[in-house]
Design a protein that fits this description.
Elements (H helix, E strand, L loop, with lengths): L2 H18 L10 H14 L12 H13 L19
Helix pairs in contact: 2-3
């Protein structure tokens, strides 16, 4: 057996394993879904004035991501609520 055949015999199965184990990329969301979820997130968590001590950017991002995961059906958790601490 030649050296080339030995090398191919070793690396061919490794290459096959590597090629089959590569994850498939996630599918892209539609423009309509992105717009719908963006509008819902902004409505639930309106932007604040720059420099304000309490903001809603984190809550808005969480709400948007939840909407995308639920295909535009809103969220199934508490991300739609205000992110500020409860009043005393």
């Amino acid at each position: 057996m030649s050296n080339i055949a030995k090398v191919l015999g070793i690396f061919a199965p490794l290459a096959l394993i590597a090629m089959t184990s590569i994850a498939t990329p996630a599918s892209a969301i539609s423009v309509d879904l992105a717009k719908k979820c963006r509008d819902m997130a902004i409505k639930a968590h309106p932007p604040t004035v720059p420099g304000a001590k309490k903001g809603s950017a984190e809550a808005e991002r969480t709400s948007y991501q939840s909407c995308i995961q639920n295909n535009g059906n809103g969220s199934n958790d508490d991300t739609q609520k205000d992110a500020s601490p409860p009043a005393k």
